[in-house]
Amino acid sequence: MENTYSIKWIVLDMDGTLLNPWDQISPRTKACLMSCQKQGIRLILASGRSYPRLMPYAKELAMDRYGGRLIEVNGMAVYDLEKEERRIIRRLEGGQIRELFDFCKGCQVEVQCYQDKAIYYWIPQWQVALKEAERKARGLPPDYPNLGGSWTWITDTRGGYPLQVQIENVSQVPDELNKINCCADPETNEGAYRKLKKRFGTEYEIARTCPRLIEISPKDVTKGNTLKMLMEEDGVKPSEVCAFGDGENDVEMFEAVGTAIAMGNAADYVKQHARFVTESNRDDGIAMALEKWIIH
């Protein structure tokens, strides 16, 4: 069906945006996005996740049938779902990894080192009791991962990262990584963020994707820069692109497009860079915005 709208691309952050608090695409949002694709609008998932953790949602939206794409790991790679082709932009390497790991470890936050299907993580001693208390309170089995998450002290991401290794020092980390995350309670993470920005602010991309997570990527590797590259390659104008997000790593993406929409659950800083603010990811914010400002 011919695209009768001025918008050609819809770009969607994942956690806190497309996904509700239960890591699901709501039926209303899915129906709305499927309708957009049938009208000729391309969907692009832009996330801190790598393709193994994005693929189930891309398949749920049948994005391979409609020329959909993935912007992975905050712009580190692009995946063309129709062609099944992946393009790597840039990764963190040896000396960078060792320098960042040791500094983050000194900030007493959990340090998470990501590859495509693996996570190597170090836990500060003060977090161990908190993780065990949560494991007991939630009645989780002994083999449940110790990895910290966006909202909890421990979370299970083995569906996308089947290899998860708790480590003691940087010598156990591979020489090439997609990104490094810092994970702690919001107050501790805020202190780590200030230290990281002061020490490495001109050398790496450092963003708070939620109060409990800081994500570190190579310099100039951002969702916004990778999206702009794709727009230039395809001859798509900013006025023809709509983007949804809720985190700091979505702000550059907002600046690249004509219609930037922040979720109701986004931080005030993110909302200030948006053209519109919709409802939260819990309340079908994407569907409401598309119905109000795009589809009609």
Supply the key terms.
six-stranded mixed sheet, globular, 9 helices, 296 residues, Hypothetical Protein, Haloacid Dehalogenase-like Hydrolase, Chain: A, domain 2, 23% strand, alpha/beta, Rossmann fold
Q: What's the short story on this structure?
A:
This protein has 296 residues and is α/β, with parallel strands linked by helices.
Q: What is the rounded Rg?
A: 19 Å
Major sheet attributes: 8 strands, mixed
Strand order of the largest sheet: 5-4-3-2-1-14-15-16
Low-confidence stretches: none
Helix content: 25-40%
The secondary-structure class comes to: alpha/beta
User: How many strand segments?
Assistant: 16
Shape: globular
Structural summary, described in words:
By secondary structure, the chain is α/β, with parallel strands linked by helices. The protein folds into two domains: 155 residues, Rossmann fold; 127 residues, 2-Layer Sandwich (Hypothetical Protein, Haloacid Dehalogenase-like Hydrolase, Chain: A, domain 2). Helices cover 32% and strands 23% of the residues. It contains nine helices and 16 strands. It has an eight-stranded mixed β-sheet, sandwiched between helices. It has a six-stranded mixed β-sheet with strand order 9-8-7-11-13-12, with helices on one face. It has a two-stranded antiparallel sheet with strand order 6-10. α1 packs parallel to α9. The longest helix has 15 residues. The radius of gyration is 19 Å and the shape is globular. The model has no long low-confidence stretch (mean pLDDT 96).
